[in-house]
C-alpha cells in the first residue's frame, strides 16, 4: 500500500505511522528522517537542505520532494510506503502525484488523524521533559511523575520545552491550517481520504486506521 498520513501537531502521527507501517510491512518514511539521513550522509540534497537550514530559511519544496523521491525508489519501498510529514502542502502533493504517475502508480489512501484544537494544545503544552535525560517524557495530565517536577527514573528536573508552550503550539496549528490542511481537500477530490478520530488509546486508533484501509489495497484486505 502507498499511504499518506496527515494530522495536526500532537495528533500522534509518528506513533501511528510506526505501528501501521509494521502491520502493513511497508517502510515508514518521515520528513525528519529524510532530512537527518541526507544531511548525515552528505548527499547533494542534504548539503542544499543544510545550507538553507543553517541560514535560518525554509528548505524549498523541490529539495524535500527530491529527498522523498530518492527514498521511495529504494528497494524496501517497492511494494509501498507510509509517508509521514510529506507532502506538507498542495505543491508537494502535486509533485508526489507526478512522481507516482511516472511509474504508473498511485496512492491507496490518505489517513487524516482528527484531533480538536484544544486537545492538541493540552497534549503538547502539558509535556514535561527530563533535563538530565531528554528521553524521559511526562505529562501534567496523562503521565504524571510520582513527585511533581522530578523524573521518576533519574531524579532530574522536569521542564517545558519552549516549542511546547501554548503560544508556540497555537502558532504551529496556524501554520498547519494554512499550509498542510488544504491537502486534505486536494485528496478528498480524489476519493482518497479516510478521517480517523485520534481521541482514543494508541492501539484503538491503530485499529480504526486499519479498518479504514480495508479494501483500499491488497495488503490491507
Automatic annotation (TrEMBL):
<dbReference type="InterPro" id="IPR027417">
    <property type="entry name" value="P-loop_NTPase"/>
</dbReference>
<keyword id="KW-0963">Cytoplasm</keyword>
<dbReference type="InterPro" id="IPR008144">
    <property type="entry name" value="Guanylate_kin-like_dom"/>
</dbReference>
<feature type="binding site">
    <location>
        <begin position="85"/>
        <end position="88"/>
    </location>
    <ligand>
        <name>AMP</name>
    </ligand>
</feature>
<dbReference type="GO" id="GO:0005524">
    <property type="term" value="F:ATP binding"/>
</dbReference>
<comment type="subunit">
    <text>Monomer.</text>
</comment>
<comment type="function">
    <text>Catalyzes the reversible transfer of the terminal phosphate group between ATP and AMP. Plays an important role in cellular energy homeostasis and in adenine nucleotide metabolism.</text>
</comment>
<dbReference type="Pfam" id="PF00406">
    <property type="entry name" value="ADK"/>
</dbReference>
<dbReference type="InterPro" id="IPR007862">
    <property type="entry name" value="Adenylate_kinase_lid-dom"/>
</dbReference>
<comment type="similarity">
    <text>Belongs to the adenylate kinase family.</text>
</comment>
<feature type="binding site">
    <location>
        <begin position="10"/>
        <end position="15"/>
    </location>
    <ligand>
        <name>ATP</name>
    </ligand>
</feature>
<feature type="binding site">
    <location>
        <position position="172"/>
    </location>
    <ligand>
        <name>AMP</name>
    </ligand>
</feature>
<dbReference type="InterPro" id="IPR006259">
    <property type="entry name" value="Adenyl_kin_sub"/>
</dbReference>
<dbReference type="InterPro" id="IPR033690">
    <property type="entry name" value="Adenylat_kinase_CS"/>
</dbReference>
<feature type="binding site">
    <location>
        <position position="200"/>
    </location>
    <ligand>
        <name>ATP</name>
    </ligand>
</feature>
<dbReference type="InterPro" id="IPR000850">
    <property type="entry name" value="Adenylat/UMP-CMP_kin"/>
</dbReference>
<dbReference type="GO" id="GO:0005737">
    <property type="term" value="C:cytoplasm"/>
</dbReference>
<comment type="pathway">
    <text>Purine metabolism; AMP biosynthesis via salvage pathway; AMP from ADP: step 1/1.</text>
</comment>
<keyword id="KW-0067">ATP-binding</keyword>
<feature type="binding site">
    <location>
        <position position="36"/>
    </location>
    <ligand>
        <name>AMP</name>
    </ligand>
</feature>
<keyword id="KW-0547">Nucleotide-binding</keyword>
<feature type="binding site">
    <location>
        <position position="92"/>
    </location>
    <ligand>
        <name>AMP</name>
    </ligand>
</feature>
<feature type="binding site">
    <location>
        <begin position="137"/>
        <end position="138"/>
    </location>
    <ligand>
        <name>ATP</name>
    </ligand>
</feature>
<protein>
    <recommendedName>
        <fullName>Adenylate kinase</fullName>
        <ecNumber>2.7.4.3</ecNumber>
    </recommendedName>
</protein>
<dbReference type="GO" id="GO:0004017">
    <property type="term" value="F:AMP kinase activity"/>
</dbReference>
<keyword id="KW-0418">Kinase</keyword>
<dbReference type="Pfam" id="PF05191">
    <property type="entry name" value="ADK_lid"/>
</dbReference>
<feature type="binding site">
    <location>
        <position position="127"/>
    </location>
    <ligand>
        <name>ATP</name>
    </ligand>
</feature>
<keyword id="KW-0808">Transferase</keyword>
<feature type="binding site">
    <location>
        <begin position="57"/>
        <end position="59"/>
    </location>
    <ligand>
        <name>AMP</name>
    </ligand>
</feature>
<keyword id="KW-0545">Nucleotide biosynthesis</keyword>
<feature type="domain" description="Guanylate kinase-like">
    <location>
        <begin position="1"/>
        <end position="214"/>
    </location>
</feature>
<feature type="binding site">
    <location>
        <position position="161"/>
    </location>
    <ligand>
        <name>AMP</name>
    </ligand>
</feature>
<feature type="region of interest" description="NMP">
    <location>
        <begin position="30"/>
        <end position="59"/>
    </location>
</feature>
<feature type="binding site">
    <location>
        <position position="31"/>
    </location>
    <ligand>
        <name>AMP</name>
    </ligand>
</feature>
<dbReference type="GO" id="GO:0044209">
    <property type="term" value="P:AMP salvage"/>
</dbReference>
